[in-house]
Amino acid sequence: MKSLVIFRLLFVSVALAFGTVAVRAQDLNAVKARMEQRLGSVNALKDRAAVGENNRGYLESRGTPGGADQQIISDENADRRVVYTALAAQTGATADAVGRQRAQQIASTVAKRGHWIQEINGEWRQKG
């Protein structure tokens, strides 16, 4: 009887753990979908030099954004935070370290000519 109770508790614990992983995977899929839908708007902001990529892996306004632009920036940064946190949990790094690594990747391979990027030392420049 006692072993049956222990088995049930163990089973429930494992089921909850796998359920949590499944929920996280679904959440990350939803985040990915939102980010893909938003990509055109984010790129338009970058093309207008309204935002830049800071050295922590987040969008940063390069002026005073309007309401719709600020919402895009906020939504994108919130989703990036979720992704960085998930990657950090998988790799044993911190979310900050993941974001900083992503910032370097964006600056070197993703950012287009004319987009604002923030250097590691904090200085801003337009990619040449």
List keywords for this structure.
single chain; 128 residues; alpha+beta; 4-stranded mixed sheet; 68% helix; 9% strand
In summary, what is this structure?
With 128 residues, the chain is an alpha+beta fold. The chain has helices at 2-47, 67-91, 95-110, and strands at 51-53, 59-61, 116-118, 124-126. It has a 4-stranded mixed sheet with strand order 2-1-3-4.
What does this structure look like?
The chain is built from three helices and four strands. It is 68% helix and 9% strand. The longest helix has 46 residues, at 2-47. Helix 1 crosses helix 2 (67-91) and helix 2 (67-91) packs across helix 3 (95-110). It is globular, with a radius of gyration of 20 Å. The chain has a four-stranded mixed β-sheet. It is α+β, with helices and mostly antiparallel strands and 128 residues long.
SSE run: HEEHHEE
- Through-space gap between termini: 72 Å
The mean pLDDT is 86
Strand content: 5-15%
What helical percentage do the residues reach?
55-70%
**Major sheet: size, sense and barrel closure?**
4 strands, mixed
Assembly category: single chain
General shape: globular
Poorly predicted runs are 9-23
- Which structural class is indicated by helix and strand composition? alpha+beta
Radius of gyration: 20 Å
**Lateral strand order in the biggest sheet:** 2-1-3-4
- What's the number of extended β-strand segments? 4
> How many individual helices?
3
